[in-house]
Design goal:
By secondary structure, the chain is mostly helical. The chain has 25 helices and two strands. Strand 1 and strand 2 form a beta hairpin.
Length: 632
């Protein structure tokens, strides 16, 4: 099946072409079957590839389709690399992606036939681009997929393009990602200059020859990390992600759970040898990740839009993944990518079910008591909240515990910050759950009259994702439980080259039990505190003041960017437009034209038709020539 790996991205691409070109002729049911079926078929092939890859002694295989770029000694093939990391991401992307496609067949049913087909075409193209990103056997292939998901995010965030604010959100996502993409591109150029190749196997084989703390490796690692900061929404390039909520809810689930935002984590995990030999950059990654996790978690405490809470939750969880990468726990980072894909997709799709039932309402202050009308959505959403909070036995517990344990071994301050972030996560998630699903209904009578459980096409993916959110963590149980860490063993060939350069921190079983007990106990206390505070929530209509107002306004980061970056740039561009462009360049060019016209008008007067004037001009000319010849 490995040699058929090209079918995995090809099938969603085919779905994109059929739905995109036939959008005016296809029915909704046929569009949904083509869009969902193409990704589901890709998932089935990915499953076969995964079982083949996990066989003992499997060696990475590169499937070359054709030569893409060949200039002098530089050869960049259009090739796919199949190994443990890419096979795992194939399952996550196509598996969660197919559930989101199935969900969309019902959620987007009110769209026109053409709009419905256009939506599925964009969604298929998004999955295709992400598959190219994780399958590429070199950094240029990765960059193609990288730019592809950036384009698709723009198209999907601004899907309802008649709304100006949605278009602005799409532009913001596209422009902020370009900042990170420039860093990624410069990193690729530096790799070509230093190693003469961008193929993973060639680069990673030469990296150790540079030695630890090499200036070149420092530059490469930093430039690639800048790319990851933009795509995976880290401080300071994170503000586009909450605004990406402008798109349809299934799009939010696809961007935030299994695809676009995890691209940065995938890139650093793939480049683990480079980062392991640049420990100073790893420390920067850990600090940036921690700051992002805490900043986003505090903002989520006071958001009232159900999707905005989940958006800042995603930014915070991405911060955790970068903390894991920064402390050298690459397996833990990938583990959290996997579990996060399950419970975050579940939470976003659950919020979509709520919004669907509420007739488009997203303000949680106008909800309440929904568990009576929406029992399946309620229980699945609760499972998602428990999983992301790290309740023992659920998937989030195992991946988050592994990150916390590695952070403790690396640096106690980073551990303390990560633990505080975990407690904030539990608080804001259960604030969201209790305000939405418990207490009395606070919406209008019209909304209450129409409250109902969502159709099967929406609840089926919720149930599947809820099951995965429960059992998904058992592939990476800690050593203290006396069972193998299956995910760690599976990914060991990918991260083995970094092992000699990492300073492993082995915790005693007693200490690990203590850390698990501490985090779990504190999380449970925080959940009960949130329950007592929000179970019978009533909106008193009083505006927030002090710190609460600052958090509600997201630390005024957008306003800061507006004042420090946007307005000065607008003033500078206005100066260039009015002074340099119009008064300088345009005036010079137009002045030349006006000068030629004026000169031609004056010279034209010489042709007046009088013979005497012509004789006089001829005599003057002869005198001038005589003077010139006399002096030369």
């Amino acid at each position: 099946m490995i040699h058929l790996v090209w079918l995995v991205p090809f099938l969603p691409l085919l779905g994109f072409l059929i739905n995109g070109l036939g959008r005016r002729y296809l029915s909704k049911s046929l569009t949904g079957v083509i869009g969902s079926g193409s990704v589901l078929a890709a998932f089935v092939i990915s499953l076969f590839i995964f079982f083949e890859v996990r066989q003992p002694g499997f060696m990475p295989q590169v499937v070359t389709l054709f030569d893409f770029i060949s200039v002098g000694n530089l050869h960049i093939p259009f090739a796919f690399q199949v190994d443990q990391l890419s096979a795992l991401f194939l399952l996550i992307i196509t598996g969660v992606g197919s559930l989101i496609h199935i969900y969309s067949t019902s959620y987007m049913h009110e769209e026109s036939d053409e709009g419905f087909a256009r939506y599925f075409a964009y969604l298929n193209l998004f999955v295709f681009s992400m598959l190219i990103l994780v399958l590429g056997a070199n950094y240029v292939m990765m960059f193609i997929g990288w730019e592809g998901v950036g384009l698709c995010s723009y198209l999907l965030i601004g899907f309802w393009f008649k709304n100006t604010s949605y278009n602005k959100a799409a532009n913001k996502a596209f422009i902020m990602n370009r900042i990170g993409d420039l860093g990624f591109l410069l990193g690729i150029f530096l790799l070509i200059q230093q190693f003469g190749s961008v193929t993973f196997s060639d680069v990673f084989a030469q990296v150790p020859t540079l030695g630890e703390n090499s200036g070149v490796l420092f530059a490469v690692a930093m430039l690639l990390f800048i790319g990851a900061m933009g795509k995976s929404a880290q401080v300071p390039l994170y503000t586009w992600l909450p605004d990406a909520m402008a798109g349809p809810t299934p799009v939010s689930a696809l961007i935030h759970a299994a695809t676009m935002v995890t691209a940065g984590i995938y890139m650093i995990a793939r480049s683990n040898v480079i980062y392991s030999l640049a420990p100073c950059i790893q420390s920067i990654i850990a600090i940036v990740g921690l700051v992002t996790a805490l900043l986003a978690a505090t903002i989520a405490l006071k958001q009232n839009d159900i999707k905005k809470v989940l958006a800042y939750s995603t930014v915070s969880q991405l911060g955790y993944m970068f903390v894991a990468l920064g402390v050298g726990a690459y397996t833990a980072a990938v583990f959290h990518v996997m579990t996060h894909a399950f419970f975050k997709a579940l939470l976003f799709l659950g919020s979509g079910s709520v919004i669907h039932a509420m007739g488009g309402e997203q303000d949680i202050r106008k909800m309440g008591g929904l568990k009576k009308w929406m029992p399946i959505t309620n229980i699945t959403f609760l499972i998602g909240c428990l999983a992301i909070s790290g309740i023992p036995g659920l998937s989030g517990f195992f991946s988050k515990d592994e990150i916390l344990a590695n952070a403790f071994g690396f640096n106690k301050i980073i551990y303390a910050g990560a633990l505080i972030g975990a407690l904030l996560t539990a608080f804001y998630m259960f604030r969201l759950y209790y305000i939405t699903f418990t207490g009395k209904f606070r919406g209008t009578h019209e909304q209450e009259h129409h409250l109902h459980e969502s159709p099967a096409a929406i609840t089926f993916p919720l149930v599947i994702l809820a099951v995965l959110s429960v059992i998904g963590g058992y592939v990476g149980m800690p050593e203290v439980f006396g069972v193998p860490h299956f995910l760690g063993e599976y990914l060991s060939p990918i991260f083995a080259p970094s092992a000699p350069f990492l300073h492993a921190h082995h915790l005693s079983h007693e200490l690990e039990w203590g850390l698990m007990g501490l985090s779990s106990g504190l999380v449970i206390i925080v959940i009960f505190f949130a329950r007592s505070k929000f179970r019978q929530y009533q909106d008193n209509g009083v505006a927030n003041t002090g710190l609460a107002k600052v958090l509600e306004n997201k630390w005024y980061v957008d306003e800061l960017y507006e004042a420090v970056i946007v307005k000065p740039l607008m003033v500078l561009s206005g100066f260039f437009q009015d002074t340099v462009e119009r008064s300088g360049i345009d005036a010079t060019v137009n002045g030349v034209g006006r000068g030629v016209k004026w000169s031609s008008r004056q010279i034209r007067l010489l042709q007046n038709g009088q013979v005497g004037f012509y004789i006089f001009a001829m005599v003057i000319g002869m005198i001038v020539l005589f003077v010139i010849s006399l002096f030369l």
